[in-house]
Amino acid sequence: MTYKMWHRCCFLLGVTTEHHYKIKHNIKVMLVDENQERTVPLTQVLSEAGYQVIAYISDMADLNKEVARLNPDVIIIDIDSPSRDTLEHIAVASRDDPRAIVMFTHDGDTEKIRSATRAGVSAYVVGGISNERLKPIMDAALARFDEYRGLRLQLDVANNKLAERKVIEKAKGILMQRRSVTEDEAYQALRKMAMDRNERLGEVARQVVEAAQLLG
């Protein structure tokens, strides 16, 4: 998906583009680590790489609240082994407004990796944080999430178009029955209503269907 296509999808869906990472400027990072001392050198490395560390939390139970309050672009989690509770917190934080999540851990269990990915983790890195590897890992995680977000938008656009076509077909059927007109005449009537009201064809079709349901 090209940059232009991505923004077109966002426009059609009314989705904000604030999490698009093609241009890395002032990307806000939240750090999650039980050991606060480990975040000091990490914060420095991130700052030197152009990232803005906006928060540090030590308790995963605070993740959802702090994400909602601060709206970070990226979450970095440093943990020995992700527990089920940890993954549940991540899933909740990612459900409504997904963002790039990088997890550094010492647990290379295959099932843990799969569970973390399903929960919303963009990059699962075994072996802990290495300052030398941090920037390429972050860049890769952001690129992967950007691609995921673009594919998700494409899918949403396709689903919306399919749903709209179904509503239009239903509205045409209603007009054909109520006005005793042909399918083409019903479609042209819907188009005229849409033009007269300066509304989308799908929205006018939805109104026709709702009106028919109310009138019985």
TrEMBL record:
Transport as UniProt keyword: no
UniProt keywords, alphabetically: Phosphoprotein
InterPro entries attached to this UniProt entry: ANTAR (IPR005561), CheY-like_superfamily (IPR011006), Sig_transdc_resp-reg_antiterm (IPR008327), Sig_transdc_resp-reg_receiver (IPR001789), WH-like_DNA-bd_sf (IPR036388)
Residues covered by the Response regulatory domain: 28-142
Positions bearing 4-aspartylphosphate: D78
Protein's UniProt keywords contain Phosphoprotein: yes
One GO MF term: RNA binding
Residues passing through the membrane, by range: none
GO BP: phosphorelay signal transduction system
Domain ANTAR: 148-209
Protein name listed in UniProt: Response regulator NasT
Gene coding for it: nasT
